[in-house]
Write a structure and sequence with these properties.
Elements: H1 32-45, E1 72-73, H2 79-88, E2 139-142, E3 145-149, H3 150-156, E4 163-174, E5 181-192, E6 196-202, E7 207-208, E8 214-217, E9 228-229, E10 232-238, E11 243-252, E12 257-267, E13 274-281, E14 287-294, E15 315-323, E16 327-330, E17 334-339, E18 346-351, E19 364-367, E20 370-373, E21 381-386, H4 395-411, E22 420-426, E23 433-434, E24 439-443, H5 444-447, H6 456-472, E25 479-481, H7 488-505, H8 511-524, H9 544-561, H10 563-577, E26 580-582, H11 584-598, H12 607-615, E27 621-627, E28 634-640, E29 659-661, E30 663-665, E31 678-680, E32 686-689, E33 699-701, E34 710-713, H13 715-728, H14 734-749, H15 755-762, H16 771-788, H17 794-812, H18 822-837, H19 841-856, H20 868-878, H21 881-893, H22 897-907, H23 913-923, H24 935-943, H25 948-958, H26 960-967, H27 971-979, H28 985-997, H29 1006-1036, H30 1049-1056
Helix pairs in contact: 1-2, 4-6, 4-7, 6-7, 7-8, 7-9, 8-9, 8-14, 8-16, 9-10, 10-11, 13-15, 14-15, 14-16, 16-17, 17-18, 19-20, 20-22, 21-22, 22-24, 23-24, 23-25, 24-25, 24-27, 25-27, 27-29, 28-29
Bound molecules: zinc ion.
């Protein structure tokens, strides 16, 4: 799965400085209460259909029935919450949309047998006190319940080990054009691993009828198709763990097989998880509804009762009902379509039984979406689906998809195992893409690309997401982690090999160079916080550590093992464990076998020995290289790199790593050897490396930054590197120039190198013409920008940046060509974006002129796709209501996801507080025309705007509960975007009190909130330690914070620029 705001997919929104974003990849599990309430109303309001559920003949909802039945509601809430549910959960009515489904009638008298619960969610983070290295010691305070550690709670959430699901039959009839309920039936056959009197499986937001639950023993009197029924003594619903438990009269016997069946009613929710509803407006302006799924990590249980853990693989026979004017898609091809008895205008699509797979990879789409077929693959049906009007935008995905699939088949030396692959872009989707086996689902920007309208970055994004999800067909789908703590095996691999797939298709993108800045450097800052987490970490949700650090350490392995060894080890791992589950040790074992076979590791060293230090510990080392007195040897030491040292830290773990050392010096200047010359063991505090060039020659460690560590040098070596960059920077490999910039700036940020040393080093940038070093510089300047925005130093800083970027801006120019090399297009976008940020008159003039020309002829937009976000943003920033309204109108009109995306971000660039306040209100009201999934994009663009930031923060504080109810899973992203530039004590206090007031509501992972707090504490600390230091450096170079006390004409002229 790939989150929408993953850092690697920089799309240059908001033209100023909106680039790096943290990933967010999974859905939070909020709002179950509200859904539960809504469902009671929905079902009752439509005639209590549960009695009519029968495997093959579901009635159409047009006939109401009102018979009494016993309903067991999964999430009966408190009375006062019910009013909220109806006002916040259903689609908001508006003059823009066609009439919503009939509102639910008054709630029925409670007939539930399950106890009331205030929350059906696994409240993983209530009252989290402290996160340790692995989270093991951390205690969880629960309200009135016993204390549980994070690990204990994660264990407590697991299903009992007594049953193993073998096969499911799932029948679902989603009433897309009705009241959004789902009529369902499930049968699941299990094998008993340990005798038990409980039959426990997952269920959430589902209404069952206890009378329909049947448990039959298999193999008994099967000829008559009856079996022997096991009597259920009591039905229990455990809301916290989302369990249904059938308490049985007799014990199920080990080795025997049983089948549980039940009828149920679910809901096509509007929360973009489980089986959910989505809509769009077609070419005729008609609102069209469809249904899609998103099950990772644990939302399959919202679609049907199941054993919803990744390790519990089974086969699935899926039946989906549809109206005849729609289509259904699932993981496998359709076996047959049959008329629905008693369902006029309805049919059932019966699907072929799946291969053994995990529940979170199942998927269903029921829609009127259109599709195109590829003819590139002989034996695999490959199709792309999207809104009919957007179908041409799917051509790129249709072109590259089959080629990437073929590439991975070859790379992993293992065939794609299913007979077909569908890729679907749905109008509402909570992530960029999701790798459901044989049915990959994307958001529109994750798959669609319109030549001439979308930018080069949009194209790269679509390419990378497609490559990522197709890599998952092997890593994740075919071989699946045993539990979520090993999810890095999925995400780390997909996030690494997606680059190999794209490099094969689009070699001109230099994507392997881009990896270093987007993935490795992109995660370094987060991983230098105390609130980081190890790659192997027991939580339901992935984060950037799991994705980007995971990918970075896999790349490191690829280099220290060598390509041949790495590939054969990976291929053995996949083919040995196909259709099964794995843990990291399985991968280490296969890679070690390959390494010993090939002689790339000594026989007394295993991959596990090395990699345990990178996966079980959080953080990473800074390797310090100091020249010895003899002049041609160096002493190398390692210690954990932290941005801020905590004097009173309770973390006593001795952080040491197995470090592959590669290096070169000025005399040799050979950057090609990326297999280690020396291993630094985790037991070694320091080592000496002899035979380097003499003292007046520089040394560089970590060639091409293939290993996951930073390098610090003695000041003499830093000065030698700076001199080299100034005299002839290309003597140092491109990636290593980016590495030196990023290391120097972050070491300065952490207090290990003087800022003067780091900023002096950036002085060569006016000569730099490569994208990757510039990116590293911009990312680090962005941090300074965030720290200085509300200080007296902001003006001098902007003038400094303008001088730095001006030569690049002049060289790249504004004349954009879509057939230029992609990295040149990116470079131009960056140069223009930063030049306009500094207020360069030429840049602003061109931006306004281009925008105004578009306003003159609204149906002909000549602004080049790459510069749209910058042009839109600055035109709206400089303009007023008229410019804003024009852009808003264009947003409503546009049929292209990427264009809508650009406009939504740019609309947050206004400098008018009242416009921004109005925009914030619109973001959390779907009737405004802004989709729920885009709320965080809108909020983020306002929060990153220096005028909007205080407004966004106040809005968030004032409307926390409303935002939480509207889109709980967006909260983390909103909080991150608005706190990025917090660096004052008062802001820290406000954040702390918000955290205290809303414990557990921002994210289900307690580390997310701890990270935000730690970042702000770091910013406060940085301001105290380094603000004056940076100001002094600027002052020394003529960028003054103070104004002259006497008027001189030349000053006013200069200030005007
Ligand atoms: Zn993924």
């Amino acid at each position: 799965m790939l989150g929408e705001v993953d850092k690697q997919h920089e799309r240059g929104h908001n033209s100023t400085l909106s680039f790096g974003k943290a990933p967010c990849c999974y859905l939070s599990r909020e709002a179950g209460v509200l859904l539960g309430v809504l469902m009671i109303g929905v079902v009752v309001g439509t005639g209590l259909l549960v009695h009519y559920l029968a495997p093959h003949t579901y009635p159409n909802l047009s006939t109401p029935h009102s018979q009494h039945f016993d309903v067991d509601v999964f999430a009966p809430p408190r009375q006062e919450k019910r009013a909220d549910a109806r006002t916040t959960s259903k689609p908001l009515s508006s003059h823009h949309s066609s009439p919503p489904p009939p509102p639910p009638p008054p709630l029925p008298p409670s007939t539930t047998s399950s106890p009331p619960s205030t929350s059906p969610q696994p409240d993983v983070m209530k009252g989290q006190k402290k996160e340790s290295l692995s989270g093991i010691e951390q205690k969880t305070e629960t309200e009135g319940k016993e204390e549980m550690t994070h690990e204990e709670r994660m264990e407590w959430l697991r299903l009992p080990l007594s049953l193993k699901p073998l096969h499911y039959l799932v029948k679902l009839q989603p009433l897309i054009n009705g009241n959004f309920s789902i009529l369902g039936y499930v049968e699941v056959e299990v094998e008993v691993l340990e005798a038990t009197t409980n039959f426990t499986l997952h269920i959430a937001d589902i209404i069952t009828n206890n009378n329909t639950v049947k448990l039959m023993e298999s193999g008994v009197e099967e000829e008559e198709g009856l079996g022997r029924e096991v009597v259920i003594r009591r039905h229990q619903y455990d809301h916290q763990r989302e369990f249904y438990i059938a308490h049985l009269e007799e014990a199920l016997q080990k080795g025997n097989k049983y089948t549980l069946s039940m009828e149920f009613t679910g809901l096509l929710n509007d929360q973009l998880h489980g089986f959910y509803r989505s809509n769009y407006r077609n070419a005729n302006g008609t609102e069209v509804w469809l249904a899609s799924t998103q099950f990772q990590a644990n939302d399959a249980r919202r679609a049907f009762p199941c054993f919803d853990e990744p390790g519990l693989k089974a086969t699935f026979e899926i039946h989906l009902a549809r109206q005849t004017n729609m289509t259904t898609i699932s993981n496998m091809p359709i076996k047959e379509t049959i008329h629905m008895v008693g369902g006029e205008g309805w049919v059932w699509d019966h699907y072929h039984t799946t291969v053994p797979m995990s529940t979170y990879l199942l998927a269903f789409v029921v829609s009127d979406l259109a599709h195109n077929n590829s003819t590139d693959l002989d034996d695999i049906l490959f199709r792309v689906w999207t809104r009919e009007e957007a179908l041409p935008q799917a051509n790129y995905a249709l072109d590259i998809g089959p080629r990437i699939l073929t590439f991975f088949t070859d790379y992993f030396n293992l065939s794609y195992p299913l007979p077909k692959l569908d890729m679907v872009a749905v109008p509402d989707f909570p992530a960029l893409g999701m790798e459901n086996w044989g049915l990959v689902i994307y958001s529109e920007i994750g798959m669609l690309y319109e030549a001439g309208v979308s930018s080069a970055a949009n194209k790269q994004l679509a390419g990378m997401v497609v490559s990522h999800e197709l890599a998952h067909q092997w890593f994740g789908d075919l071989v699946t982690p045993k539990w979520w703590s090993e999810i890095w095996l999925n995400e780390g691999f997909a996030s690494y090999v997606e680059h190999l797939g794209i490099d094969h298709i689009e070699p001109s993108w230099n994507i392997l160079e881009q990896f270093v800045i987007r993935r490795l450097q992109g995660v370094f800052v987060k991983d230098s916080l105390h609130s980081s987490n190890p790659v192997i970490y027991n939580a339901m949700n992935g984060n950037t550590i799991i994705y980007s650090k995971g990918a970075s350490i896999i790349r490191m392995m690829n280099h220290f093992l060598g390509d041949g060894t790495f590939r054969s080890g990976v291929s053995d791992y996949l083919s040995t464990l196909k259709y099964d589950n794995a843990v990291s040790d399985d991968l280490w074992e296969h890679l070690t076998l390959a390494a010993h076979r090939d002689g790339t590791l000594p026989t007394n060293l295993t991959v596990k020995t090395i990699m345990d230090t990178w996966t079980l510990q959080m953080g990473y080392p800074v390797i310090t290289v100091k020249r010895n007195n003899d002049g041609n040897s160096v002493t190398v030491t390692q210690e954990r790199f932290l941005l801020t040292r905590q004097e009173n830290s309770e973390d006593t773990h001795d952080y040491k790593w197995w470090v592959p050392l590669t290096y070169t010096d000025q005399a040799e200047a050979d950057f090609s050897q990326t297999q280690p010359k020396v291993w630094m063991k985790d037991s070694e505090a320091q080592i000496t490396i002899p035979h380097l060039a003499t003292k007046d020659h520089w040394v560089i460690f970590n060639l091409h930054q293939t290993a996951y560590y930073r390098v610090n040098y003695d000041l003499h070596n830093w000065h030698l590197l700076t001199s080299q960059l100034l005299s002839q920077h290309t003597a140092i490999a491109t990636i290593n120039r980016a590495q030196i910039i990023d290391d120097a700036m972050d070491l300065a940020r952490g207090g290990l190198v003087p800022y003067a040393t780091a900023l002096d080093l950036l002085g060569y940038l006016p000569q730099e013409r490569d994208y990757v070093p510039w990116w590293a510089a911009f990312e680090n300047l962005k941090f300074l920008k965030n720290m200085l925005t509300y200080t007296a130093g902001y003006g001098p800083f902007k003038r400094y940046v303008r001088d730095l970027v001006l030569p690049l801006y002049s060289t790249m120019g504004l004349d954009d060509h879509l057939d230029d090399p992609v990295l040149d297009q990116y470079m131009r976008q960056k140069a223009v974006s930063w030049a306009c940020f500094t207020g360069l008159p030429d840049c602003l003039h061109h931006a306004l002129a281009a925008f105004n020309a578009w306003r003159e002829t609204p149906h002909r937009n000549n602004i080049t796709a790459n510069l749209k976000s910058t042009v839109y943003c600055h035109a709206i920033a400089e303009g007023g209501e008229e410019e804003w309204r024009f852009a808003w109108h264009q947003y409503l009109e546009s049929n292209v996801g990427t264009e809508k995306d650009n406009l939504l971000s740019a609309l947050g660039c206004s400098k008018k507080p009242w416009i921004l306040s109005r925009y914030l209100e619109m973001a959390f009201n779907e009737s405004s025309g802004i989709k729920k999934q885009d709320a965080r994009r809108v909020f983020g663009s306002v929060a990153r705007n220096e005028v909007g930031q205080p407004l966004a923060w106040t809005f968030l504080q004032d409307n926390f509960d409303r935002i939480h109810a509207y889109s709980a899973n967006a909260l983390k992203g909103l909080m991150k975007s608005v706190t990025t530039s917090f660096n004052r004590e008062t802001q820290l206090k406000e954040l702390e009190s918000l955290h205290a007031a809303h414990k557990g509501q921002v994210s289900s992972n307690p580390l997310d909130m701890m990270e935000m707090l730690e970042r702000v504490r770091h910013n406060v600390d940085w301001t105290q330690r380094h603000y004056q230091e940076v100001m002094a450096w600027l002052q020394n170079r003529g960028y003054h914070t103070t104004l002259p006390t006497h008027h001189r004409p030349s000053d006013s002229q200069r200030a005007h620029g």
